[in-house]
Amino acid sequence: MNARISIASLEQLPPLRAVGEGWGGVKSRNLSASSSKAASSGNPTPTLPPDQVRGRLCYTQGRGRSRASRLRRAVKACALLAAFAVPFVAHADKIRDLVQVAGVRSNQLVGYGLVVGLDGTGDQTTQAPFTTQSLENMLKQFGVSIPATGIQPQLKDVAAVTITAELPPFAKPGQTIDITVASIGNAKSLRGGELLMSPLRGADGNVYAIAQGSVVVGGVSASGRSGSSVQINVSASGRIPNGASVERVVPNSFSHGGDIVLNLDTADYATANHIVDAINRLYGAGTAHALDGGSVAVRGPVDPSQKVAWLGAIEALDVDPGEAPARVIVNSRTGTVVIGADVRVTAAAVAHGSIQVTISEQPQVSQPGPFSNGTTQVVPNSSVSVTQQSAHMFKFGPGVSLDSIVRAVNQVGATPTDLISILEALKQAGALHADLVVI
After folding, report:
1. Within 13 A of 219's CA, how many CA atoms are on the CB side?
2. pTM score
3. Percent of the chain surpassing pLDDT 70
4. Residue 212's closest CA among 266, 169, 257, 176?
5. How many CA atoms within 13 Å lie on the side-chain side of 197?
6. Range of weakest confidence among 71-85, 255-269, 302-316, 375-389
7. Among residues 245, 154, 233, which one has the least CA distance to residue 198?
8. 212: which of 64, 138, 192, 252 lies 20 to 30 Å off by Cα?
9. By three-state DSSP, how is residue 161 classified?
10. Taking a C-beta distance cutoff of 8 angstroms, is the pair 244, 209 a contact?
11. 394 has which bridge partners?
């Protein structure tokens, strides 16, 4: 039964009519037949005054409508009870969004190659000799020899690049993956370049993919002879969609027997316990057990095909994750401060002010007197001033929430740098009940 019944839809229900009843809930009768029957029997047909007929019709109609309204109210009440009886999950996530399967992981690949066809924006070979060396070695493989005259070729349309890629799990030979190329020399731009065939190796030194293709660059750079230049984003790196073909399969432990281990993306004891409860509630006690706060072991079938279906069903389960710990993230380089919702501050008073020191140099020129055979000298003249801004003081009561902290700091006009200093001082004083993470 679907408990999500709209009350508006119930209001649109037509008045109910009992089976075998006519208009107004009164059983319909053939008056003409009754009249003819009465006439044939010799009895006069009873005749009612018009006002009494209208009164009886209104009475029977009102009685039928009241019965239908009571029935509609009963249906509404049942629908509301069914809606409240349905269990409600406040914040449920799929298990696949919270865990990673142990042994199923991606692998990093790296390679070295040459990008050719650049419009004069390649490496300067006098400052990047490895580019010329790489080109000569490649030409030798094609039977082209360069005379050893001691003259290094000046190339402007070739750039030496590094190639990086991520090999996803279960990738099979013949499938393609995206790659990223980046200049390791002094190339100005890779726009319009073509990457020559280059092997991509894993951490074990084996070749797992072959890369080649046209480089797509998102940045733009231009310069003039006067030295002025304009640059938008980075043009010395780019990507090649589907630029590498997989050549070797990476072995994994998924096809092996034994338990399936689910590693949580963020270790949390409450989340691990909720995952175990959700699996055991559906598949029976003992199906899953927590190894620690970051891993859950699940019994699985030995057949890999059955294991795929089994794991897919488990990952589709809804789990209420545990609450995130109270944490304040501070980026001192950009001045970004992120405060979690559960951050609390105990009673504390904060006074924050800043001192500004200004040093200005105004050199003066000293001219010698006439006919004194002196020389003109530049006399330094330094001016040092110290300005202390008025300090604002505000008080936090016990158990102050995030909203109160932000409102108080904004009222005194504190900058993100001031907020970082205030949070660090509160943490040292023991008034900040949260983890302060500086990145």
Report:
1. 16
2. 0.61
3. 66
4. 176
5. 5
6. 71-85
7. 245
8. 252
9. strand
10. yes
11. 350
